[in-house]
């Protein structure tokens, strides 16, 4: 079975500081991994995805994530936080090798302070 | 990509009643899904809406409680039946677009409060 664990339900960073949101996965097969962002009162938007190609994945809004098989991790980073990055971030793994049937982590709420 | 419209965007319902949520996609899609996001929690897959056949439910979800229809490739409904306060959640429709099978698109969700 596939699952993801997000460490830290709340993360607070200063504007301009590094953003690091942690995600570890468990999968019996090569995983397809995703990061989604949810702004208040909105649906989910895909930030980036790993589908067994390059291990360093670049997404929208300056975010990137690195797939590390040895550490079973897929942490999300951004070099410099912006106030507009404040949102809920979800890591997800696919059970099917596509975008179908995603299993989501518990989410990390990112707060950005001045 | 796909643009997904969900209706209603929010509702407050009395316990014991039922609410039907609609999901309309602007293009034909192969796969449609319904998720639930309980307050302060992550998303949980309820079921896969299959066109022309019965929905496929995940463990812990049953058809009597969450009947789903999918009459065509662009539309689906989820009904939350005999509601209780524990059903208060955000319900989200999701689609997988043909030719883009490594991305799922989500609607904005329906925020349901049961009183």
Describe this structure in words.
The complex is a heterodimer of chains A (114) and B (115). Helix content of chain A is 0%, strand content 54%. Chain A is globular and about 40 Å long. Chain A is built from no helices and eleven strands. By secondary structure, chain A is mainly β. The model of chain A has no long low-confidence stretch (mean pLDDT 92). In chain A, 38% of the residues are buried. Chain B has 115 residues and is mostly beta strands. Chain B is built from no helices and eleven strands. In chain B, strands 2, 4, 5, 6, 9, 10 and 11 form a seven-stranded mixed sheet that branches. In chain B, a hairpin with a 7-residue loop joins strand 9 (89-96) and strand 10 (104-106). The radius of gyration of chain B is 13 Å and the shape is globular. The mean pLDDT of chain B is 92. Chain A binds chain B through residues 32, 34, 36, 41-46, 49, 51, 90, 98-107, and chain B through 4, 31, 33, 41-45, 48, 92, 94, 96, 100-109.
List the helices and strands and how they pair.
The complex is a heterodimer of chains A (114) and B (115).
Chain A: E1 3-7, E2 10-14, E3 19-26, E4 33-38, E5 44-50, E6 56-58, E7 64-68, E8 73-78, E9 87-94, E10 102-104, E11 108-113
Parallel strand pairs in A: 2-11
Antiparallel strand pairs in A: 1-3, 3-8, 4-5, 4-9, 6-7, 7-8, 9-10, 9-11
Chain B: E1 4-7, E2 10-13, E3 19-25, E4 31-37, E5 43-49, E6 56-57, E7 68-72, E8 75-80, E9 89-96, E10 104-106, E11 110-114
Parallel strand pairs in B: 2-11
Antiparallel strand pairs in B: 1-3, 3-8, 4-5, 4-9, 5-6, 7-8, 9-10, 9-11
């Amino acid at each position: 079975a596939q699952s993801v664990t997000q460490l830290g339900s709340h993360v607070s960073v200063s504007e301009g500081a590094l953003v690091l949101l942690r995600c570890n996965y468990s999968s019996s097969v090569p995983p397809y991994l995703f990061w989604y962002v949810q702004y208040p009162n909105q649906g989910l938007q895909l930030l980036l995805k790993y589908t067994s190609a390059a291990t360093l994945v670049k997404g929208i809004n300056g975010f990137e994530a690195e797939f590390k098989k040895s550490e079973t991790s897929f942490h999300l980073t951004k070099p410099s936080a912006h106030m507009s990055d404040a949102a809920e971030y979800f890591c997800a793994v696919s059970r099917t090798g596509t975008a179908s049937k995603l299993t989501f982590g518990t989410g990390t709420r990112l707060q950005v302070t001045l | 990509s796909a643009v997904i419209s969900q209706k209603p965007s929010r509702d407050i319902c009395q316990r014991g009643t039922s609410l039907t949520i609609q999901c309309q996609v602007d293009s034909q899609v192969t796969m449609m899904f319904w998720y639930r996001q309980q307050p302060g929690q992550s998303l949980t897959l309820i079921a896969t809406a299959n066109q022309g056949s019965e929905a496929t439910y995940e463990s812990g979800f049953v058809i009597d409680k969450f009947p789903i229809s999918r009459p065509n490739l662009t539309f689906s409904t989820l009904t939350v039946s005999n509601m209780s306060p524990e059903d208060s959640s955000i319900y989200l429709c999701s689609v997988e677009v043909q030719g883009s099978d490594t991305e799922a698109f989500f609607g904005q969700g329906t925020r349901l409060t049961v009183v």
